Please model this.
Amino acid sequence: MIWPIMIIKTESNYSNTKERRKMKKTLLSLVMVVCMASASLAADEAVIKTAKQIYKTQGDTVVWVSAVSKMELSGMGMLLGNQGEQEVEAVGTVIHESGLTVVSSASLNPMSMLGDIAIEVQGESQKINTQSQLSEVKMILADGTEIDCKLVLEDRDLNLSFIMPEKKEDVKLPKFKYISLKEGGKSEILDSLILLDRLGKSLNKQCQVLLSRVSAVVKKPRIFYCASELNMGGTPVFTENGKILGITSIRKPKAKGIMAMTGITPVVIPAGDVMEIAEQALEANKTKKETKEEVKEDK
Model:
């Protein structure tokens, strides 16, 4: 009679031990989930804190740009059409102490999205050129101040245009707040991003801050970052640590004409790449200024 009782007790102890192990594993899993959630929450709070600081210190570097665009179609040795004058607007970012500002080419020059168009005339393919001329380019600062500007350089492939305030004898230019692109940061997949932008006229062109995450990093033919919440271009994007990552733009397919309007993808161009073109813009502006002074001296 003694042995059966002992056997029963042994099985009972074994069963209790398995249950305790299960409970320990379950409790350990719960603790890990809570810890991960706490860490994620802390990380999100850190990004939000950084975003608020960027909004406060860099918000005024994001400006509105307006211009009058005159669009023309030409081909076969003649002017084929004139779209007349159209007021265009875009959001840009001041990236140099001189007031040099980068903006989306597609926003200032919608025809640049089409490129050249091929049409068939009497069985032959004819090339139609699309062109636009900008005039009355203005930068509107955060306080509403309007500054006359000029287009100094355009990179249609990267969808970036650079405008520079015009220096006039009777107008004193303000001290511009700007974002330096010299020390750009890097981001990896699913890293948090901080974006600055401006709302439209109906909302008083107020600066806004957005949060997003890197959804893809394209490495060929050059580096581009993809993420949600990106606009048509010209606005700054920062890493989760607050470093400038780059400037928003768009990538379009190599097709021309109407087909070029499909498959457009918003991207972030790394700060270093934008800086290289910005240096060309500064040099181009310097050259134009020197040429203008030489012409004035000759007169």
